[in-house]
Each structure stands twice: as C-alpha cells, then as structure tokens.
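Run Chitobiosyldiphosphodolichol beta-mannosyltransferase through structure prediction, thanks.
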Amino acid sequence: AVTGAVAALLFLLLWRWRRRAGGAGRVCVAVLGDLGRSPRMQYHALALARHGREVALLGYLRDRPHRDVLRSENIRLVPVAELRGLRVGPKLFQYVLKVLVQSVQLLYTLLRIDQPSYILLQNPPGLPSIAVAWVAGLLCGSKLIIDWHNYGYTIMSLSHGRNHPLVLIAKWYERLFGRLSDYNLCVTEAMKKDLWVNFKIKAVTLYDKPASYFKETPLDLQHNLYLKLAKDYEPFRLRAVNASADRSAFTERDGKSGNVVKTRGRPALLISSTSWTEDEDFSVLLRALEDYERFIKEGAKLPALVCVITGKGPLKDYYNGLIQKLHFKHIQICTPWLEAEDYPLLLGSADLGVCLHKSSSGLDLPMKVVDMFGCCLPVCAIHFECLHELVKHNENGLIFRDSKELAEQLKMLFLEFPALEGKLHSFRENLRASQQLRWDQSWDQIVLPLLGNKE
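Sure, done. The structure for Chitobiosyldiphosphodolichol beta-mannosyltransferase is below.
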C-alpha cells in the first residue's frame, strides 16, 4: 500500500512539473481537522469566494459546514480521510506512523487539486501540515499563509507536560517550519509579539470577528427555536399541566394578537459552548451553579436557570456523568449539539454567556465570546493572560478567577431578573452601542491586501 502511494505521488509530481501554471485566482484553505468545527477557516473561504476566488476547502468532513459554504459556487469541499485504528506497537511508534501516513495523504490531496496561488493553512494542528503545505507550495508555485490560532506544542503540553520529548520536538518543528511561510496571520496582539520574540516570525493580527449572522434574535424566531428544541430537550418545555402547544418555557404566542411575548416568571437562559477538552474546566461552572441553587434556598430573589452547554468533544461523557449526579430544584442543564444555523439563533436569544476557555498558550482568544458579543450577549469569562484584548471587565461582561467569584457574579447579574435595569442590561446596551467591525470588513482591511490583485 505504501509503495503504491509513493508511486502515485511521484506520478502526480511529474504531472505537476509539466503544469506549473501558478493557479490564477485559486486558493486552498486547509485544516487538518473537522471543517464543520473550524468556523474561522470557513469564514476565510467565504471571504475569498466573495472576492471571486476559486476556493478548495480542505479538511475532515465530520460535521456539516455552514450552509453558506455549501451553497457557494466558488467553494469546493475537498475531504481528507481521517486515520483511525493505527494501534500497532508502542504509543510513540503509533504517533510517528500516524504523522508519516498523514504526510503522504495530505501531500497527495494537495497535489490532486487545481494548482492554487496560495495555500492558507490553519495552525494548530501544524504537525505535519505546515511542512507538507510548504513542500506542496514549492512544487505548485503557491505561497504559504499560516493562520496561527494557537501553538500545537502548548496544546500537547496539557496532556504530556512542557518538558516531554514530543512537546519539545513539536515546539522546534513549529519554530523551524513556521519561518518558511510567506505570510502569517494570528489572533491577538500578544501572539503577534510572541511569534516575533520567540520564533522570529512576522505576523499580522486578524482578530476573530463575528459573521453577519451572529446578531440578536427576533422574538418570533426565538419562539420557533424554543419549540423546535422542546421536542428533544425538556428544559425548553413549559412546566404546566395544561401547557399549550404554542408555548415554551420562555415564550408564548398571544391567542388574540398573534404576537409572541415572553412568559411571566420565565427562567433565565444561560449558555456556554465548548469542545469539551482539557483547556476548559466545566467543574468551575457546576460548582458555581451549586452556590446559585443555595442562594435561592436562602431566599435570594433569583430566577430559575436553564443552562445550555453546546458542543462535542472527548470529555463530554465525563462531564455529563458529573451533571447527572447533581440534583437541582431551580436549575436545569442540557448539553445539546446544535445545527450550525441554530447556534447563532440560540446565542441571540440567551440572557448571559459563560466562557471557561483557558488558552494553553495564554495567547489566543475564545471565538465563542466573539460570537456572543456579535449577538450583543454579555459574558462572564474565566481569566487568562490576554483576555483583556476582548472582554472589558465591567463594560461588556465580567472576568472571574474561580467558581465562588462566578457564583457571586451570577447572583449580582440575575437579581430581580428580568427587570430592564442593572449590570446585565447596561452590558448589553454597551455591546449594542459598540458597533464592532464584522468579519468581512476586518478581513477586507487586513487579509485582502496580502493577496494582491487576482491573478
């Protein structure tokens, strides 16, 4: 099988050598991960397509990408097969074998597509994709742009420790091959500085910005979403014996006027999203909710809570086990996986967002907060090094350091809910007034000039 793959690669190389066209107006946007869970790379593809570029969007096809990506005539999905079942020999051998097989597989895929002018690559994961994309760029006459979301070696260090040989090799690899790129993008000013000081890589900061469909959700659409979710998730159903089919836990349609109104005494809707990985400790939120329940028992005038935690990931079953052991009277928790189109609608319907993302490097910002701010949704976010570049404490949200501080913030924000006054309301008004740049405007200002004229 390996001999056949090498022979196929050699054939492709010879064929490419005869067709060094330079790929007029074509861009390959690549991520060695799930495209459906790579919103920033989807945004890149949509921005390029909007400017008339032909885009090959390359990656794993586990979860469905956004419908705008699927509908675009200028974007072609290029699936990469996921490697599973490489369980021969020691773990180190398995890892090396996986990297080698992925290298051949990725190079073969990159050489199969029409020659692009640029390869825009997400890092992490960068091993082996940076080196492979650089080799493909040499063979195809393509320029390599790396979009640094974080460092792969710092993510590996969460599992193995900073001084593990694999982590040290990954750091050396990122530093060496990162310098071979033609252009570099990154997600914060802190990362831009770190790339230069430690890697001698010059980068341009392209902050994550919300796409245009992240906005406040009109009441009619909120109602339809709640009724849809109520079919599968009990917290969205109205707890009443004679509940109407046109009522949810949060909204109801007035029988006379036909208008949707919010139900009296409705619970507050708290939302958090996660990829259920080591860099987010959800026990912090669970402990804060236990304190919130205690506040109500002690007589605080707080609403019941519906806490929705969305996402998929390796630690989801572990945390679901912890959630099932909790017995709340005033709090309901559910962990749905939402369709791509429903997620912005739910953010635009919620009362408060909570973010537990702690950057492995301390240099990247949580995109979930960017999306929440696009929906004018105030946020409580756990502190880390450069979070101040996004969350302005006491202006568009609050920053906490532990579960006790989060519990006190929830108590303060939801006291006398849903009165249109207090911090929660002022944070939302501040977000409405900020009129932040959207992704398309930011991308046009920062990335488009790097690409030059359409060739």
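The chain is about 40% helix and 15% strand.
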